[in-house]
Design a protein that fits this description.
Helices cover about 30% and strands about 40% of the residues. Helix 3 runs antiparallel to helix 4. The longest helix has 22 residues. The protein is globular, with a radius of gyration of 20 Å. The protein starts with 6 loop residues before the first helix and ends with a helix. The N terminus is likely disordered. InterPro entries: RmlC_Cupin_sf (IPR011051).
């Protein structure tokens, strides 16, 4: 140990992973009761994601429980946990889509990481284009800016179309949550109406290993959908590049 160096400083210098250093600093910044609450939140996040991955928890129930959990987390605490102020300046905001980068939550010792976390950013007028999901669940927290948020239930999958039922249509601002799964609110579409706008996404994929793929996205032409009886929409499947042309920039 060098002269004047504390045991804590030597430990930090010895750690090679930035995420580990950041976790220690974040934990040290928390007061006792707040630290306990934060540890409980992170532990519960790990448990819910492990349970849905292990098929101990239904995807729809994961949505309900993880949204309830994150509703109790102050937005300021989530921003600090992922070090959003450091991440955002390094996130490129493309002209026709969202930019994305990893945004890891602090680790809990002894618990395996079975989920992914990302920071998504959009310039004003840009969009997360309309798309559905297969073999995954995800939850999305608005961190800054404002979105026009729309969700649709996937009622039927056809070779060239998805039959959809509109389920959510609202303005989504900082702290607002939404989530997707195969059975509930499967298709979503976010347009940044006030930007730059950012979301934090929590993702668990490979829910059914028998499918042979980790996850897939289905892009759809919602605006050009054929109206059906009962308020349903028959939306044409499209390729990603066409989705960007049609929806990436308003």
């Amino acid at each position: 140990m060098s002269q004047g160096a504390t045991r804590r400083e030597v430990l930090l210098q010895a750690l090679t992973g930035y995420a580990l250093v950041r976790t220690l600093l974040w934990q040290d910044a928390l007061a006792g009761p707040v630290k306990q609450e934060a540890q409980a939140w992170l532990s519960r996040t790990h448990q819910l994601c492990a349970d849905v991955r292990d098929r101990k928890l239904a995807p729809r129930e994961w949505q309900r429980q993880v949204e309830a959990l994150f509703h109790r987390v102050p937005l300021s605490e989530l921003l600090r946990a992922i070090d959003a102020d450091r991440l955002k300046p390094g996130l490129e905001l493309p002209d026709d889509r969202a930019g994305a980068m990893p945004a890891p939550l602090p680790r809990i010792e002894g618990l395996p990481r079975v989920f992914g976390t990302k920071l998504f950013g959009l310039a004003q007028g840009r969009a997360v284009v309309p798309h559905g999901h297969q073999n995954m669940v995800s939850m999305h927290v608005v961190l800054a800016g404002e979105f026009h948020l729309r969700h649709f239930e996937r009622v039927e999958s056809q070779p060239e179309h998805l039959v959809l039922r509109p389920s959510i249509d609202r303005v989504s601002g900082p702290g607002d949550l939404s989530s997707i799964s195969d059975p509930h609110d499967n298709v979503h579409w976010l347009v940044a109406t006030k930007g730059p706008a950012y979301t934090f996404d929590l993702i668990v994929d490979r829910l059914d290993p028998a499918l042979g793929f980790a996850w897939r996205l289905d892009y759809v032409d919602v605006d050009g959908a054929e109206p059906l009886a009962g308020g349903l929409l028959r939306a044409r499947r499209i390729e990603f590049e066409e989705a960007l042309r049609r929806y990436g920039k308003t």
